[in-house]
Design goal:
By secondary structure, the chain is mainly α. Helix content is about 85%, strand content about 0%.
């Protein structure tokens, strides 16, 4: 399952997951900072961190989910969806985007868990 979602080899998986895990962590840190700023009464900083963190998480969750939908449904790319009938392509694309947002949290949690596992293996030297 991990090979289909994140890459064939552990090196490919580490390369794929490291970018997304760090961007996800940055978004979560910004959202947590907004909660701290809200408790401190700094509404300007709270709204700024909340907006930036929310947009960052929205984009990265879409990336987690859409890549998984493409891998699980066997879609080659966005252009392949529209290659036949354009109307049917739009329907399939909207369905794929909605499905991507629904499963993005599960895929993100699987990816973060796999990234942690790969980091632990790399530190122990187990290949």
């Amino acid at each position: 399952m991990y090979q289909k979602l994140f890459g064939q080899t552990e090196e490919e998986q580490m390369q794929y997951l490291s970018k997304r895990v760090w961007v996800t962590a940055a978004g979560l840190v910004l959202v947590l900072l907004s909660a701290v700023f809200r408790a401190a009464g700094l509404s300007t900083m709270q709204s700024l961190c909340s907006a930036v963190g929310g947009v960052l998480l929205l984009v990265v969750m879409f990336l987690w989910g859409f890549h998984a939908v493409k891998a699980l449904l066997g879609l080659g790319g966005v252009g392949a969806i529209f290659s036949g009938n354009v109307v049917l392509g739009v329907v399939i694309f909207v369905f794929a985007v909605l499905l991507a947002y629904v499963i993005s949290l599960v895929i993100a949690l699987l990816g973060i868990g796999r990234y942690v596992t790969l980091c632990i293996r790399a530190r122990k030297g187990v290949g």
